[in-house]
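This section describes the prediction task in plain terms. A model, or a person checking by hand, is given the sequence of a single protein chain and must write out its three-dimensional structure as a string of tokens. No templates, partner chains or ligands are provided. The sample shown here is typical of the held-out split.
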Amino acid sequence: MVINDEFYMSLAIAEAWKYQLLTYPNPAVGAIVLKKGEIVSLEAHKKAGNAHAEVLALKSAYLKKNPTSRLENITSPFEIHDYLKENHDGFFEDCEIYITLEPCNHTGKTPACSDLLVALKPKRVIISVLDPNKNASGGIEKLKSCGIDVTIDICKKQGEDLLFPFLRYMSGKFLFFKLAARANGSIDGGYITSKESLTYVHKLRSVIDTLVIGGNTVRIDRPTLDCRFIEHGKSPDVLIYSSKKEFDREIPLFKVPNREVIISNTLDVSSGYIMVEGGYTLLEQLYYQIDMLVLFISPNFKNSNDILLTELKFEILYSMQIGDDELIFLKKRL
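The expected answer:
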């Protein structure tokens, strides 16, 4: 049987994009397990500190054959590793594992994925891109040294696009701009996108270090900028980008507990994971400081403030459907 590595890797990459920007400070990663040419699991890393993509995929694959196993209720990465090492019984020896990023080779909040793969001895491991983090790299060499067949650079360009936010964050700071618009480019008049998109944005707010918003938006919209659409979300600190320092302190964003609000006429955030929420004017003002544009496009129209989105100086990294909307990740054109 001829296996189409590009096809399966593209599925793993697409799964990882569903959690893009939500796994901070970890990269978004996807994984697939094939057994005798059949997909038995497809998973992605979902949250820093939780099990990595390949571990979740290995767990799901094992449960396909052993649905009543107590592994079903194990969530600790260390416990999942231990259980699979002790109970795999050669199940993975005829499996092929597709991973968008080289398996980590160090122990931190989670154990080394390379150690688990060595213990399970899959038939082959297929990887899109190498891990740029020197503290975590070396997984490929470990797998090869233990006789596991390893293929690399499959869908390399798509894998690098997936890794782009993590690479930028490794430089010390990652700043992305969230913009919601209707299909004709209008951005005024209350909620624009679907509930699914709003939930995604609230998930983003819960993992970032700082949320930046323009002063005019604060005065006009009087936002809360919290994470009320998700459970247990921590609302981010806020930087109001404004030359005028006076604001009505009854605006809801000032009343969110455990939050710092800074008012500044400069974007004086030197490090961290930063999201800007705003419109076209703020986007233009901050263009040279932005690493990525996260664009939510609603299928609705409204006859005001029409702007051609094609005029924006960004190139598309990836797009996907979220609710009724299109979610597009873009980076600046070089």
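For orientation: The chain has a mean pLDDT of 92.
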